Amino acid sequence: MPLPSSVALYGLALAFGFVTGTTLPISEVNKRQERCVASTQTQEELASLLSKKATILGPTSVDWADVTERYMAQVQPTVCLSVRPGTEDDVAEIVRFANRLDVPFYTVSRGHALTESVGRFRGIEIDLRDLRAFEVNPNNVTAFFQGGAYSHEVIDGLWDQGFVTGTGGCECVSVIGPALGGGHGLQQGRHGLTMDMLVNLNVVLANGTAVQVNETSHPDLWWAMRGAGHNFGIVTSFESKIWPEDKSKTYLVKTYQFAGRSLEAVIDRVNEFQGLGTLDPSWLASFGLYIMNTTLSKTEATINWAFVFSGSPEEGHAVLKPFDDLGPLSVDVVNVPYRVVNEYVGGGMEGRLCEGNKTHVIGTANLQTYNKTSMRAIYDLYNERIRQHPRLGDTRVLVEGYSVEGVLSHRSEDSAYALRDEHILTYFDTRFDSMDDPLIPFATEWRDHTVALWYGGQPERRPTTYVNYAAGYESLEARYGHETWRLEKLRKLKRQYDPDNKFAWYNPIFPPA
Ligand SMILES: Cc1cc2nc3c(=O)[nH]c(=O)nc-3n(C[C@H](O)[C@H](O)[C@H](O)COP(=O)(O)OP(=O)(O)OC[C@H]3O[C@@H](n4cnc5c(N)ncnc54)[C@H](O)[C@@H]3O)c2cc1C
Ligand SMILES: *[C@@H]1O[C@H](CO)[C@@H](O)[C@H](O)[C@H]1NC(C)=O
Ligand SMILES: *[C@@H]1O[C@H](CO)[C@@H](O)[C@H](O)[C@H]1NC(C)=O
Ligand SMILES: *[C@@H]1O[C@H](CO)[C@@H](O)[C@H](O)[C@H]1NC(C)=O
Ligand SMILES: *[C@@H]1O[C@H](CO)[C@@H](O)[C@H](O)[C@H]1NC(C)=O
Ligand SMILES: *[C@@H]1O[C@H](CO)[C@@H](O)[C@H](O)[C@H]1NC(C)=O
Ligand SMILES: *[C@@H]1O[C@H](CO)[C@@H](O)[C@H](O)[C@H]1NC(C)=O
């Protein structure tokens, strides 16, 4: 993100990375990046190494803008060649080729990376969009997925066969991208994070060697790749658990809109409903949102709260009765199959959340419970900022309270994911059509203020950041864990498996020079 505060903090991280001795001087990195020439000769040489199904595209391709389009318009790596492997073996070939040329490489699955560090990449992109296959294994307990498989196709395809698995709530996002940093979603209350469902990863390492990574094969890498995976290898495919689900089953999605005056009562009831990580897993989600709905008010944000329930509608309505009693401005109720639940909470392929190529000012904080005082302060701040600039009424202040039983059923020390006791995810998002919008600094200050209020609501706890929601300015400790052994272990494994810091582009453990 082109945010002044981020840049300053990045500078610090950079200096720090340098001291550890695994990063290169700036001049050396620049030299490497300059070697990425999209010459015809380079393309032909690479093509001769790859399968017939592989595609190699350069900046002169007619559809280059579409090829390199991303969710975050302002997080644009400089791509000199975009290579689409046709087979998993191609991935290793591309890595070895890039290493021979001494040119950086970077993997893209669905292009939703949020963190600014991705924008620093310059080199050959490995685009997994043609490796999207997935298949239920004969045991019906696990399925095979390629690295480019994404939520929309996976949810639909598995549902057709009577199964569900872990994915995020937005259909445009890949399955493995989120999983490498955790993976939150509707199945986590019952079955854990998406990464908890993995049983095997087929990985290409920094030197182009393909290995299997699982509990018994490279167990140290198995530990690291579940939570900090983007820093360690390319997952060409993986095996992950699935669960049978009755195809005739429907889910209750109930969405309330409340006025600002109800805020304290809503927060009290949500806290009672969720408990401290004790929400029953039959509740798949409880999402809150502050947003302007100008049909209802031109000056005050509405407070939306959406609940997703897998039990009977009668039971669901009974539990939610305290919310009905608060006099909501509106209530929407649907009972729908699992495959379309995401659409009703905003994450469908055509939904607003999946819209790409916008500039976003984002910020996030993890919480355990909602602090009424800070939720009120954040709400009042929202209204004040909208009074100043009404056109920012599209800003989303989102809170996500999935159930967590499945997440807590795994031991924290068994993976690089350090945040199992964070029950609530938050997300601030103002979006712009242009990277040069004059209100970006204004939104950035608003973002910083909002995040500070979230953290201020739990003064006894250290700030932590879900790595996949990070903008990139947060501390490494917040992203990878405050316990000192965690970053020490990650750094040791980086030196072992990626001594030249080839995987340095996504919330890097060693920020590149
Ligand atoms: C609209 C939206 C909704 C989201 N919803 C959720 C959600 O519900 N739950 C959740 O947990 N997170 C969610 N996220 C955050 C999400 O986890 C990250 O944005 C994630 O990194 C996106 O993965 P991607 O494949 O789409 O993006 P990409 O940009 O393609 O990949 C993200 C990072 O992962 C690396 N990567 C991708 N594929 C591989 C691979 N096969 N092997 C190794 N590295 C790889 C890339 O190099 C990149 O650094 C959401 C993000 C957005 C923008
Ligand atoms: C992305 O948005 C920019 C700015 O609006 C626009 O110029 C560009 O064409 C868009 N790219 C694509 C692939 O639509
Ligand atoms: C797996 O599920 C399919 C239906 O989806 C069923 O036909 C098949 O018998 C099951 N196999 C096993 C081993 O249970
Ligand atoms: C783990 O990897 C080893 C070595 O490649 C392999 O033999 C084994 O089958 C893998 N385990 C799983 C669960 O895939
Ligand atoms: C705004 O409120 C109206 C009236 O309740 C509702 O129909 C509409 O869907 C709401 N808009 C959004 C974007 O939520
Ligand atoms: C709630 O937040 C306020 C600051 O907004 C803080 O002073 C207070 O201690 C917090 N309450 C709890 C229980 O942490
Ligand atoms: C690649 O790296 C791995 C992990 O460090 C190592 O075990 C392997 O021997 C290396 N392969 C080659 C060909 O150097």
TrEMBL record:
PROSITE patterns: FAD_PCMH. Keywords: FAD, Flavoprotein, Oxidoreductase, Signal. GO terms for molecular function: FAD binding; oxidoreductase activity. Residues 1-21 form the signal peptide. Residues 72-245 form the FAD-binding PCMH-type domain. It comes from the Eukaryota. Pfam families: BBE, FAD_binding_4. InterPro entries: BBE, FAD-bd_PCMH, FAD-bd_PCMH-like_sf, FAD-bd_PCMH_sub2, FAD-linked_Oxidoreductase, Oxid_FAD_bind_N. Belongs to the oxygen-dependent FAD-linked oxidoreductase family. This is FAD-binding PCMH-type domain-containing protein.
